[in-house]
Amino acid sequence: MSSVPGGKPLPVRKPLPYRRVTVLGAAGGIGQPLSMLLKLNPLVSKLSLYDIAGTPGVATDLSHINTRTEVHGFAGDDQLKDALKDADLVIIPAGVPRKPGMTRDELFDINAGIVKKLVQAIAKHCPFALINMISNPVNSTVPIAAEVLKVEGTYDHTRLFGVTTLDVVRARTFYAKAKNLPIEDVDVPVVGGHAGKTILPLFSQATPQVPLSKEEVEELTRKTQDGGTEVVQAKAGKGSATLSMAYAAALFAESCLKAMNGEPNIIECAYVGSSVTDYPFFASKVELGKHGMVKALELGPISKYEQTCLDEMKDELMGSIDKGVAYVHNTESEKIIESLK
Q1: Is 125 a catalytic residue?
Q2: Is 26 assigned to a binding site?
């Protein structure tokens, strides 16, 4: 024990279990604020930042923040291996953002190639790391990642997560504001996918539970589904949801880190491979553990309106999943990857 002059002995602070986190796409609009939030997280011991360019500067900037997390910057294909070495958690915000009038699905051709290349590297250099996928369209990029990992012989559905936390954050915010509730007490599970009508907030399961009219439920659902578009339009061509996405990604990453360190009863919504529904990938509540997902939780009772929304998302969600799976086995994808080098 240490002590101050003339004072009582001070207890020795036990070191926290530290983890190594890698951010792929760290110099971008989401990557930079996300990296800063991770630098402030005491559960992160080493933070590796990777992008095609600019990351050494981002890393140097963040390294001046007086927390114990070590920060290292890596750039270019030659340094991807070093960025991934010994990573416990890999977060992927890499890719181009949406522009006004652009849907998440229109990002597919570019971002799919980036994701495929990065996941191939993860399979080779840190095959047991948890993967948090942010790159849009998540409904397709998670299936792409799964197929790549299958090809590489390292797929484990319990370690691959599509980060849908921003949908939960938005649903909580809009619900609390609409009903004048203390925001810190509010929770709203969001299931389905991470684009348009595949985003389904379950206000019937919200806590605290307060009465909502049919019109209120429909309006809050629409507002949650259109949250990303609202930001794109408000930024008038100068970006998409970067700060709120970084915040949401940091929340989910922290839950993963806590669970990896043995903290029990960590429940988050995420887009994962599961058998909760007939979809091979579906966003629902999942229990996190030391090695990833312990289990995906059943949907539970939902309202008639929510069941209708669930039925109506089928074609769009399955189409996005099938498109991602097919992409990995399409030789044309190799041309896109080559064009990115």
Answers
A1: no
A2: yes
User: What would the pLDDT profile of 316-338 be if each residue is shown by its tens digit?
Assistant: 999 999 999 999 988 554 544 45
Alpha-carbon distance of 82 to 271, in angstroms, equals: 28
Q: Which amino acid is residue 65, in one-letter code? A: I
pLDDT at residue 5 in the model: 46
Annotated ligand binding at 180? The verdict is no
In this prediction, residue 103 carries a pLDDT of 63
> What six digits make up the tokens of 165?
């936390």
Q: Which helix (H) or strand (E) holds 114?
A: helix 108-125
At 110 the pLDDT is 84
Contact between 239 and 29 (Cβ < 8 Å):
yes
pLDDT at 147 (0 to 100): 97
Q: Does the annotation list 76 as a binding residue?
A: no
Residues of the chain with pLDDT under 70: 1-16, 98-105, 331-341
Angle, helices 227-234 vs 214-225, to 10°: value is 60
Rounded distance between C-alpha atoms, residue 189 and residue 240, angstroms: 23
d(CA 165, CA 245): 8
Q: Where are the domains of the chain?
A: 19-164, 165-319
Catalytic-labelled residue, pool 157, 194, 291, 329: 194
Assign a CATH topology to domain 19-164: Rossmann fold (3.40.50)
Kindly report whether the peptide bond that precedes residue 280 is cis, defined as omega within 30 degrees of 0.
no
The first and second tokens of residue 134, run together, are 């942010």
Reported as a single tens digit per residue, the pLDDT across 64-87 is 999 999 999 999 999 999 999 999
DSSP secondary structure letter of residue 207: B
Domain 165-319 belongs in CATH node 3.90.110.10: yes
Confidence (pTM)? 0.91
Question: Is 213 labelled as part of a ligand binding site?
Answer: no
Positive or negative torsion for Cα 234, 237, 240, 243 = negative
Distance (Å, whole) CA 50 – CA 73: 6
114 is in an annotated binding site: no
What the block records as the tokens of 1 is 């024990």
